[in-house]
Amino acid sequence: MATPAFADLLKFRLHKNLTRWLVSGPPFLFLLLFFLAPSLIMVLASFRYPGEFGGLAPLRDANPAVLQGLTLETYRFFFSDVIYAEIFFKSFGMALATTLACLVMAYPLALLIARSPRKHRDLMVLLVILPFASNFLVRVYAWMIILGPQSAFAHAIGSALELFGITPVPLLFSPVAVLIGMIYVHLPFMILPLYTNLEKHDPVLLDAAQDLGANAWRRFWDVTFPLSLPGIFAGSALVFIPVLGMFAIPDILGGTRDMLIGNLIKEQFLGVRDWPFGATLSIMLTLMVLAWAGFSMWLARKWSHSHA
Amino acid sequence: MRSSVALWAASLLVYLFLYVPLAIVVAYSFNDSRLNAEWVGFTWHWYQVLLHDEDMLQAAANSLLIAFIASTCATVLGTMAGLAMHRYKPKLLPFMVITPVAMPEILLGVSLLLFFIQVLNLTLGMLSVILAHITFCIGFVAIVVKARLAGMDESIFEAARDLGATPWKTFKHVTFPLILPAVVAGFLMSFTLSLDDFVITFFTAGVGVSTLPLQIYSMIKIAVTPEVNAVSTVLMLITLTMIVLAARFAPETLKARS
Tell me, what CATH number does A129's domain have? Predict the structure, then answer.
């Protein structure tokens, strides 16, 4: 009696495991090969010597004169010249400025949508997403037109500056142009998580605060704002991280001196073809992203503890 | 609750900030002038130029082919990943699915470039671009499918099993019809993302193949003519259609995109 039941159970277990592997196996293997392996290769590449004609030097070479094996040389090089630290610092500043600007611009709109009648909200959110539908390069290119020397906007800004006795500077190919482009491309990433958070707030809390005599200003800073911090953390991560690695916007809207980490990495891989140094820079960027993500999560956890 | 005038005014400015630049691009695509400076008169000229631009048409054909193959593969793999993540709660798979989407694009681009050339010894071209696109599209499909599954009543699947259905039969007759809207939405979203991708394509295309975004990039960098405005407008229309379709099939898509 017991044997067939056991056989059935075994068959069932086998079946279950087989199904599991049939379902998770293909995506797992694909990502193992095309995401995890390349990432590990990148770490390895950062410890190698550059090849004579670009790329990587061989790990083993019969000729002892050829540089081979593993080295910390690229890391030493990274820390030996202050210019790299400067570019990292500048990228960090750009990411921070973009995040703050997005936060200031996104907050009123997210709040307005969250406080609008339910039937209007979907449309208002859709209106935020629609510009997303245009190609990334098109959105950057639009600012090339607006900030370009021939545009009416640039003329207006120029005359306004002259009015105050400031010599107009070209808007395009400047850090300001890069910042505007960064804000424009990433703004919806701040609006949407903020709105998702603000929408969940219970209006009763604000009524209670009002009954207790809090004016609109205090109601915002003592009730709405602290409750929206998780949304702010989420939005900040979604804006900060892509800006940190962005190369296309400084490439199109910035001048030659507005180079950020992304441009430096691109230059190493496609320009001067020093792949080990490019890999080192990529590892440094990864560490910065991880540090920021860890910092955001720590803040979020600290916040949820203090409000538990 | 009443919203103050200041809130409305600030929000209106943000909406203007989002739309005016794109409106300018569209408007200048019909402008009868070589310069993006002032309005001269209406013309279809730049669209005619576009229709006779062999490089641009070839790039458009490549983009569509890449987007179709990559999003089809990503939909199959992403659906599997979504199912696996929902059913078996694996530890490593969610990390591998989400990270390519969450990290700066340039990192995936350069690591794949290194991997294709150094390890696979592959000549960069159509194949490398398709593989790269599948890698970042899987995550989006998996998230949409998983979200759809999470909102479902588990008892339906248990009922199918109790009635003696094999896992395959349960999938075919119960699970798949239920998640179909999410699968279609995931496909459309992958298609749009692939069609639009610039950064990862830039690193994995080599000199072998050009796509629409690569073509637009070289035009912006080398010589800006209003043809860029025309191709931008066409591209906007295509992506817009895709998004509206995706939103119709599964409203979750809009959330997953953020």
Answer: 1.10.3720.10
